[in-house]
Specification:
This protein has 433 residues and is an alpha+beta fold. The protein is 45% helix and 21% strand. It contains twelve helices and eleven strands. Strands 6, 7, 8, 9 and 10 form a five-stranded antiparallel beta sheet that branches. It has a four-stranded antiparallel beta sheet with strand order 1-2-4-3, with helices on one face. The protein has a two-stranded parallel sheet with strand order 5-11. The protein is extended, with a radius of gyration of 34 Å.
């Protein structure tokens, strides 16, 4: 087998493969003989159909199968022989038979050769933060808010109170879609309803009926209501104030900690520290990845970028489906996902170069620690650890994450670093946005 390769662009290649002793006709005849016993044709017993009739009805398909098998096998051999790893599926350009020879050409792309990862004259910000007592207290207050109850009041409603209402809205005497509600709890001042609506509930008491009139803003989310004036017949069913649980052993038990408030605070702090560690790692990793992507220009093959864009589009669809959105009919233009896809493909090449040049391998102790950190948030940590350790796919994911963390550390070790101090809330919010 003869193989020649020529460059047609920076990453594009054309390969010509010549199979000297293809013997296609012989292979086609052998294939027809192998299928003859199963060929059925009116007037003939199975296996007795004349070969010329078998060739006439099944010859073209047999030839396609023989050529396809020959191309696939010789293509794999050619890529191995030339030590080529194509960036995407090759495209057959031409095929020709010359006696016993079979010659075909194919086009494909290769990955760019990354000579080095440029880190010269780079200053990289590294955020540091810690969980403070104030952070823990705020989280405890959040837990109290989540478990609050409402105490009914006899007085009129004021800002901060919860008002439970039934209402029916009309425009020009006609009810409209979305203008009716029953047992709706509104916390005055929270902005769940239009300010004009909430203001007219101030001072109202339980069992009181009130007529609320308002004009919808010109930019209201429901176009059919924009600028329209509506009247609401409202029945106030309850006015209540928040009642937060006391910080006692009973509250700790409500949060799943039986040993009391001190133990609850200790567990809350531990959870927050795990969350902060993860958020800091994500934030600083994002900065490092963005930096090396900006500082290193690479020509990228189209096939992996296309695959990555398709993956990102499908991921976006799944996110919408998980939110209950019907994605049928929503246009997903792959071009919108191409910039992010290009960045991801570029980063995979740069990270791969750093890993290979520095022989970075997953540290077993760090892999174990990463799994322990995941398991710590579950009721039965040992079961989670066993799941990861006995599932090669999941274990490989953790190992790759550890390797990426080691790559990020390598980057920070090879650039000038400026630390910036932040807070728990700012770091967590920066990562989630």
């Amino acid at each position: 087998m003869q193989v020649t390769v020529e460059n047609v662009s920076e990453l594009g290649r054309r390969m010509t493969v010549t199979v000297e002793d293809a013997n296609i006709e012989k292979a086609v005849q052998e294939r027809l003989k192998s299928i003859r016993p199963n060929v059925k044709m009116a007037g003939f017993r199975p296996g007795k159909v004349p070969m010329n009739m078998v060739a006439r009805t099944h010859g073209p398909a047999a030839r396609r199968d023989v050529i396809d098998s020959l191309v696939q096998e010789s293509m794999r051999e050619a890529f191995t022989q030339e030590n080529i790893n194509p960036a995407g599926p090759p495209h057959i350009d031409s095929m020709d038979e010359e006696g016993e020879k079979f010659i075909y050409t194919l086009n494909y792309e290769v990955f760019p050769e990354v000579s080095d990862v440029k880190l010269d004259d780079i200053t990289l910000e590294k955020t540091v933060a810690e969980v403070t007592d104030e952070d823990v207290d705020k989280m405890i207050e959040t837990l109290r808010e989540q478990r609050m109850t409402w105490d009914p009041l006899k007085r009129g409603a004021k800002e901060g109170d919860g008002v439970t209402i039934d209402f029916v809205g009309t425009i020009d005497g006609e009810e409209f879609q979305g203008g009716k509600g029953k047992d709706v709890l509104i916390e005055l001042g929270e902005g769940r309803m239009l300010p004009e609506f909430e203001e007219q509930l101030i001072g109202k008491k339980a069992d009181q009926e009130v007529e609320v009139t308002l004009t919808f803003p010109e930019d209201y989310r429901a176009e059919q209501l924009q600028g329209k004036t509506a009247k609401f017949d409202v029945t106030v069913k309850q006015v209540a104030k928040k009642k937060l649980p006391k910080l006692d052993k009973e509250f700790a038990a409500m949060c799943g900690v039986e040993e009391g408030i001190a133990a609850l605070k200790k567990e809350v702090r531990a959870n927050m520290e795990r969350e902060l560690t993860s958020a800091l790692k994500t934030l600083n990793k994002r900065r490092a990845m963005d930096m090396i992507a900006q500082k290193n220009e690479l020509a990228l093959p189209e096939a992996p970028v296309e695959r990555e864009a398709q993956y990102l589009a499908e991921q976006a669809k799944n996110n919408l489906r998980n939110q209950g959105v019907n994605v049928e009919g929503i246009p997903f233009d792959l071009e919108n996902f191409k910039p992010n896809a290009q960045n991801r493909v570029k980063l995979s090449l740069l990270i791969g170069k750093i890993i290979s040049d520095n022989e970075i391998k997953p540290d077993e102790e760090r892999v174990k620690q990463a799994i322990d950190n995941i398991a710590a948030s579950y009721e039965d940590p040992e079961e989670v650890v066993n799941y990861y350790m006995n599932n090669q796919e999941r274990l490989s994911e953790i190992q790759m994450t550890v390797v990426e963390d080691m790559v990020v550390e390598w980057i920070f070790d090879h650039v000038k670093v400026e630390e910036s101090t932040s807070t728990f809330s700012d770091v967590v919010n920066a990562v989630s946005n």
